[in-house]
Structure formats: structure tokens, C-alpha cells
Amino acid sequence: MNGILILEQMLNGLQFGLMLFLLAAGLTLVFGIMDMINLAHGSLYMVGAYLIATISAATGSFWWGLGLGIVGAAVFGMLLELTILRRLYQRDHVSQVLGTFAILLMCNEGVRLIWGSQPLSLNPPASLAGPVELMAGFSYPAYRLFIIGVGLVVAGLLYVLIVHTRVGMQVRAGASNREMAMAMGTNVRTLFTAVFGVGAALCAVAGGMMGPLLAVQVGMGESILILAFVVIVIGGIGSIRGALLGALLVGVVDTAGRTLIPLFLNAAVGPQAASNAGPALASILIYILMAGVLFFKPRGLFPTHG
Amino acid sequence: MSSSPTMSHSTSTPKTATSILDHSLQLRWSLPALAVLLALPALAAWAGDTFYVGLATRVLIFALAATSLNLILGFGGMVSFGHAAFVGVGAYCVAVLMQSGVVSAWVAWPLAVGLSALIALLVGFVSLRTQGVYFIMITLAFAQMLYYLVISLKAYGGDDGLSLASRSTVGMGLDLGDDTHFYYLTLGILVLALVGVTRLLNARFGHALQAIRENEVRMTAIGFPVFRYKLVAFTIAGALAGLAGALFANVGSFVSPAMMQWSQSGMLMIMVILGGVGHLYGGVMGAIVFLLLEELLSHYTIHWQLGLGAVLLGVVLLAPNGISSFLRRKEGV
């Protein structure tokens, strides 16, 4: 086992984890404050990625696409909240599942109607296309380093916003006890539309960043949505701190598992079995992690509700 | 949960001595409906379109799977988001046995039911320690584990799935290779399952289960072994789902990991919610409406999911308790 491989996997895991955090942050606040299951959260990620890819192609600039796409996704998210989602807050979980699943279906089909079923391509900016030599004998793609940087900056900004501002205090109050927060004068309705807009913008950032690495295609939101749910359940619903820790945990475990498990299996039972069972075992790993966490801490690592 | 049966204004003069936790098979309209279903193959043959027999069989199997989910979701208040996994386990059990030469339904189907029940017991044992949203997510997690486990079974097709050489055999003059015979067997199983579920719900066990749904803390306080009741219900639901899986494997002569995906669990849940959570026929009605809607819309446009989504959204916003809330009002239960 060489150190460079492990270092590379750790960086990949960090990068994936930070992107998961961008998705999980919005999801956990929606979940925590309004006790609302939003299966359509992944659709915001997809819509963001499509907008960014389209605008980038039209303007020829990745940066224009990213900026305008994030604004577009935020507007889309807030419109969704104002027109449909706010009618579902007071309903039980099963109604929310049905309602947001319907939105998910409509978003998928709407995207297919507008952009067709072929995946779009989104290229990283030319200035970030090459590798960067981090130390002698170890170079790492500049674009992935850039993603890590963006992820850290956004996570930091979100932390400051939530922990050190008045609005953030109201959001936290809403997440731990909505009735009490309302009684103390917080306008949860307006606050929540804003939270939804920020959540959608974060989704779009993640979509735009991941776009060049994965294909921009219909259904891209679903698989990552499940991971984001895993993240917030591990972290404790409504907790930003939990979402960050959960995202990094899932990112690292998932990425490391995909590389290391086949290596271990290769050594233990031979290459044939390793190539068969390796990828599946790696996919199962994070669910084992989640089930394990819930077995010992049924409300996640950082429970918010008292 | 808003799914609880609501008392209507006519409670001042109860017609029967049964409790509101009792559920009637409502023979007044379900027997005519059954008569239509019995006549369906003949009607299809008369119309010259036997395609509909296959479609109807699929609808009935989905109805069985959705009814099994409704048992825990609707009557037990357990929002399980991994029910398709148990369907898949049943289906794969039949397919794997078939590949090793076991074609008799009398061997394969009980094994499928038993294996699904066993796995449901294990999953339930861990999952039922959690509550609410966490329960939804942990059942999903277990379903995903089983899904990836099946994908890794390269000897049984892995990602590509597995074709069955033939349908199971039952003897007794029934040839399951014949679509009409298969349809009648499926219909018989669904009717038996519905009668069984009704008897279960009206028994002491069912009353306790529904009481737990209404107020778990109180049931614990008065000394009911709440965990055990929920676990038994979860296991029975898993067993019924496994039976539906065995039928699915046969109807298409094909099994694949796709039938265990989380979106399939979501679809079963949507059928139940659409039909009516905690209504005896909720799963059946949801399956019929959902699949027929899908069939109908896909005739008109390739973008049928847009229409389906709109209809589902309409149901959520306008009929909070699903389609059967209209029926319930009419029945005056």
C-alpha cells in the first residue's frame, strides 16, 4: 500500500464529501425546520447543472454559466416553494413523499422535453484543465483541487451565516423548535422561502462543479439524493455541523472503499472474485455505516431536536 | 398520522357492534368487482386483445405488493421505504431455484415467502428501534444493501438480470405457461391475501397494531409488547411481498436488480398513498389507477411522466387521504 494512493483517495473523498455537503445542507434545513421530506431536492441539483451547462455553452464561458445558473436555480427553487411545497409542510410524511415524488417526475420529464435525453457535456475552464504537482512525484488534477477550495469556502460562508448572523440564529431556532421560534417573532414563512433559495443555489453549485466530472443527464439527481439523505441521517437531521461531518464521512468512506476494497479482496481471494464483489461491497459500505450509526445513535450523531 | 379512519356524523346510531378498528370486505361492491375480474379473460378474448390479460395480471401482482406495504404503512404506521427489496428477494429466490432445476411452485414459492419473511424479520429487528424519518431512511438503507448485493451476484446475471427458462409448475390441471391460467391463479392469491389481511386486522392482533399506530406511547404504557407486534406485522408484510415477487418472476420470466431499486419502493408507496393509506383496498385501487394511468398516458405521449406527475400532485393537494377517501365518504363508514 503506498502513501500516494492513500493521499489521492483522501483528496478525492474530501472533494466528493464537500459536494455532498452542499446538497445535504439545504436538505437538512428543510427537513429540520419544516419536518418535510423533499424528494425533489435532487431535481434542483439537476436543473442547476443543466442551466449551467447550457449557459456555459451559449456564452462560451464556464464562469458566466456558473454564476447565472446558480441564480436561475435559486429562483426556480423559491418558485417551487412558493407555489407547491409550502402547501405540504403541514401534511404527514407520506403526503410529502407523494407530492415531492410527483415534482421529481415532472422535473425529469420537463428536462427531457427541453434538452432531450442525450447527456450534455460541460467542460471545466481551460485554466484548470491540467494537473498540479503537490509534491515530488504526486500531481493532482487542478480542477478537483478547485472543487475542494470552493467546497471549503462555501462551507465556511455557510458556517458564518448560520452561526454568527441573526438570520442564522433564527434558522437554528426554527430547526430545533419551530413553534417556539414562531412564538418569539420569527417569520418562519419568509425565512423558509429564503432557506429554500439558498438550498437551491447550493445544489446548483454542486451540480455545476460535478458536471464536468460526471455527465449532465436526466436522473442525475436521484442517486446523489439518496447519498445526501444518508448524510443528513448520519449527521442528525437539522444539524449543519452533522451534515458536514456526515458528508465528509460518507465521501471518504465511499471513495476509499471503491479503491481499497478491490485491493484487499484481490489480495485475499484473488482478482476474479475481487472484480465481481468489490464494487458492490464498496456501494454497500456507506449503508452499513448509516445502519451502524443509527443502531447506536437512533437520532444521528448531532441530534437537534430535544 | 392523518390516515386514521374518521368517524362520520352517523355514529349516534351504530348499525353494527364492530369497532372502528374493524375493516369490512365491503362485499356490496367488491363482489361485483370480482365478477368483472373473473370475466376479464373472456371479455379480452371476445375483444380479440389478449394483451390485456397480461396487463391485468401485472396490475394484480402490484396490488398484492402494495397491499402488503399498506398492512405496515397504513395500519401499523410504519413508513417503510424499502419494500421493493422484499419483492426482489422473493423473485430472485424463484429465479435462482429455477436455474438449479427446481421448477415446482410448491417448493419455490414457499421458499421465496419464507426467505423474504426471514430477511424482513432481520431488517425489522434493527429498523424498528428507530422512529419517524429515521425509520424511513434505515429501511431504505437495508433495501439498498440488498440491491447492491444482488448486483454483485455475477453468477445470476448481476446488473443484467436473469431470464427464467419457463414459468413454475403447479400441477392440478393448471398450466402457468398459459396467461389465462396464470391470471386466475394470481387473482385467487390476491383474494385470499385480502381476506387474510382483513381477518388479521379484525383480530386482536390487528386492533393492537392499529392502536399502536394511533398512540404508541400509550400502548407501551398499558403493557403491550409494542416492538414485538410491529416486528410480526413487518415480517408478515415482507412475506406477502415475497409472494408478489415470486409472481413477478413468473409473469415476466425475468428478474433484475432494477425491481429492487429505491424508485420501485417509492412507486409501491405511491400506489398505497394514491389508493388510500389504511384503507383495506387502498393498495389494490392505487395499483389499478397508477398502472392504468401509466398505460393510458404512454399511449398519447412519450412524455407521459409529466402527466402522471401532475395527476399525483393533484391527488396530494385535493384528496389528502387518496382515492378511497371519496369512497369512504360515500360508504358512510
Sequence-ordered SSE layout with sheet pairings:
The complex is a heterodimer of chains A (306) and B (333).
Chain A: H1 3-34, H2 41-59, H3 62-83, H4 93-115, E1 131-135, E2 138-141, H5 142-164, H6 166-176, H7 178-183, H8 188-210, H9 220-235, H10 240-269, H11 271-296
Chain B: H1 27-47, H2 51-73, H3 83-99, H4 105-127, H5 132-151, E1 162-163, H6 179-202, H7 204-214, H8 216-221, H9 226-252, E2 254-255, H10 262-275, H11 282-300, H12 304-318, H13 324-331
Antiparallel strand pairs in B: 1-2
Helix pairs in contact in B: 2-6, 2-9, 2-10, 2-11, 3-4, 3-5, 3-9, 4-9, 6-7, 7-9, 10-11, 11-12
Q: Could you list the spans of chain B in which at least 5 consecutive residues all have pLDDT below 50?
A: 1-15
* Share in β-strands of chain A: under 5%
The CATH architecture of chain A is: Orthogonal Bundle
Number of strands of chain A: 2
Using the coordinates above, name the CATH class of chain A. Mainly Alpha
Largest sheet of chain A: 2 strands, antiparallel
InterPro entries (chain A): ABC_transp_permease (IPR001851), BCAA_transport_permease (IPR052157)
Main location (chain A): membrane
Family (chain A): Belongs to the binding-protein-dependent transport system permease family. LivHM subfamily.
Transmembrane segments (chain A): 12-32, 39-57, 63-85, 97-115, 142-162, 188-208, 214-237, 277-296
Descriptive overview:
The complex is a heterodimer of chains A (306) and B (333). Chain A has a single domain, classed as ABC transporter involved in vitamin B12 uptake, BtuC, CATH 1.10.3470. Chain A is 75% helix and 3% strand. Chain A contains eleven helices and two strands. The longest helix of chain A has 32 residues. Chain B is an all-alpha fold and 333 residues long. In chain B, 68% of the residues lie in helices and 1% in strands. Chain B contains 13 helices and two strands, in the order αααααβααααβαααα. Chain B has a two-stranded antiparallel sheet with strand order 1-2. The longest helix of chain B is centred in the C-terminal third of the chain and has 27 residues. The chains are: A mainly alpha (306), B mainly alpha (333). Chains A and B meet through α4, α9 and α11 of A and α5, α10 and α12 of B.
